[in-house]
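Quick board copy: two proteins, each given as sequence then C-alpha cells.
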Amino acid sequence: MLFESHCHLTDRRFDADRSETIERAHAAGVGALISIASSAADAERVAALTRAHRGVWGTAGVHPHEAGRAGADDVERVRELLEVEPRLVAVGETGLDYHYDFGPRDRQRELFRAHARLAAETGLPLVVHSRSADDDTRAVIAEFRGAARGVLHCFTGGMGLLEGALDAGWHISFTGLVTFRNFDGQEAVRAVPRDRLMIETDSPYLAPVPHRGRRNEPAYVARVRDGVAAVRGESAEEVERYSARNAFRFFGLEADEAGGTAEPSPAAP
C-alpha cells in the first residue's frame, strides 16, 4: 500500500470536501495518512480528525512560520496533546525557514530545540521543515544526535545537510517536486538509502505533475512514488513497498492498523 507521510488535512482548502478527500486517498491505495499540525490550535484539530477517520494519524507541533506568535504555553499544549492523544504519533512540524522569515530566526531556533527536546523525552519522531537554513538545521540535528530521531520532510537542501541527517540516522522525505521539469534535487533522491526514504504530498501544497498549479491532495502521493522511481531507476512497486515500510517503522505503526487496502495500489490518479 501507499503511505502518505505528510499532508495538512486540517487546512481550510479541504473544508468543503475533507472526508471525501480521505476516501479518495483510500480508493487510490493510500492505506495510511499522517496529517501534520502547524500550531497548538491546529494540533487539536488534527487530533479530532484522527479520531473521526480510519487510517489517519497526526502530529502536534508549531511550524517555524508561527514562531513569532507562539509562546511557551503553546509548546506545553503540544506536550499535553501528545500525552493524551494516542493517534498523534510525532512531534512537529517544526524546523527553520530562512526563505520567508515569517518568524524571527532566534525564536525559530529556540522552538526547534524545544521540539527536539520534546521528541527526545517522549521517544516520538520529529518532523522537520528546513528551507534555506541548511547550516543551522544540521547543527540542531548534530546537537540532538542519538537523543532525537527525525525526518527532513519535502527535502530541498544541499548534500551537506543530507549527509549530516543520514549520518545521524534520520529519514528523508520527498514531494511532488520530483515530478517538476526544473527539479534539481536528483542527486539527493538517488543518495538516500532505501531504508531511509519516505514519500509525501505536503498537500494542499506542491501538487505533482499533471496536477501542478491546482490543489494537491493525498491521493496524488502515487505520482510522487512514480517520480521518485523514475529518478532512482527503480520500479514504482519497489518504491511503494519500501517507502511504506519505512514510514510504518518511523511512526511506530503496524500495517494492519491502516485503514486502506493492502492490495497493489491502482494507477496514479
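And the next:
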Amino acid sequence: MSYVTETLSNLIHQTAFFNLTWGNYLMILVACVFLYLAIAKGFEPLLLVPIAFGMLLVNIYPDIMAAPEEMSNGVGGLLHYFYILDEWSILPSLIFMGVGAMTDFGPLISNPKSFLMGAAAQLGIYVAYFLAIFLGFNGKAAAAISIIGGADGPTSIFLAGKLGQTSLMGPIAVAAYSYMSLVPIIQPPIMKAFTTEKERKIKMEQLRPVSKLEKILFPIVITIVVCMILPTTAPLVGMLMLGNLFRESGVVKQLTETASNALMYIVVILLGTSVGASTSAEAFLNVATLKIVVLGLVAFAFGTFGGVMLGKLMCKLSGGKINPLIGSAGVSAVPMAARVSQKVGAEADPTNFLLMHAMGPNVAGVIGTAVAAGTFMAIYGI
C-alpha cells in the first residue's frame, strides 16, 4: 500500500500544478486571450495562433525552451532549436522571401510618390528610439525596440538578433506581432482624428498599368541601390526582392509557389511558436517588458500619424487628388494596413476604392522598415 501511495504522490508532484508560479498562470491567461483574439475575432490568426500556443507551452513546461547545457542528457528543448533560427536571423529573412513572392509591387511602381509616405510612416521608429534611450535603455536596445513602430515582426526579430538583444527579443517580437494584429483597432481613431471627412471622401484616379519589364527590373534595381548604400540590409531587402523576382519573372513558377506557400507557412509555424515560447513568466513579467509594450504602441501611433500627415501635405500640393488615408498604410503591416485605409475610406464614401492606392505606401513601408534596421546596424557597426 505504501508503494502505491508513494507512486501516486510522485506522479502528482510531477504535474505542472506543483511547479508553476502565479506569473506562469498569468501568462497562460494571456495566451488564452491571444488565442481568443485570433480564432474568435480573426486578428491575424496565422501569427497569433502559433505565438499564443508557444506562450502556453513554455509556461506549462519551461524545459521546452531549455538550452542543451541546462538538460541532464545534453539535449535542449524542442522550441530552443526553433528559437536559434530566430537568433541567427534565418527565419525573418525567409519570411521576407515569402512576402516578396506574394506581393505585387505594381501600385508602388505606378505611383513612386508612395515611397514618400512609406518613409514618413517610419517616424514612429525614430520617436520610439529616442524615447527608449530617455527611459534608460542602451542604444542597441533602443534601436531594437523602436523597429516595432514599423509594425514589422520579422524585422524586429532580425534587428534584435543582429544587435545582440536576444534577452529582449521575446517582448519585442510579441509586441510587434500584437500591434500588427491590432492594426484594425489602433489605426482608425488616429486616421479619423487627423483627417477631415472631406479628405476621407477623396477619390483617387486609377493607377496606370505597369509593364512586365518594369516589374522584373524593380526588384533588381532596388536590391542594387539599397544594398549598395546599406549593405547590412541585404538579408532582408535581398530576400524580399528575390521572392518578388520569382513572382514577376514568370519562369520559376515552382519556386514562387514554394516561397509563397509551403516554405512561408513552415517558417511562420517555427517563428511563431519560438517567439511565443520566449515569453516565459520569468523573462516577460518585468518593468522592461512593460516599457517595451508602451514604447511599441507609441511608435506605432506615431508611424500612423507620420504617414497620414504627409498624406495631408501631398493632398494639398496635388490640389486634392491624393487621399491622405493611404499614408497610414506606410507602417508596413502588409496587407492589413492597406485594408484599413480602404475600410476607413469606404466608411466616408461606400463608392471609394483606396486599396490598390494604399498598397503603394504599404509595400514601401516594408522596404522603409528594412532600411531603418540597416541604418541602425550601420550606426552600431554591425
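Board note added afterward: The chain has a mean pLDDT of 89.
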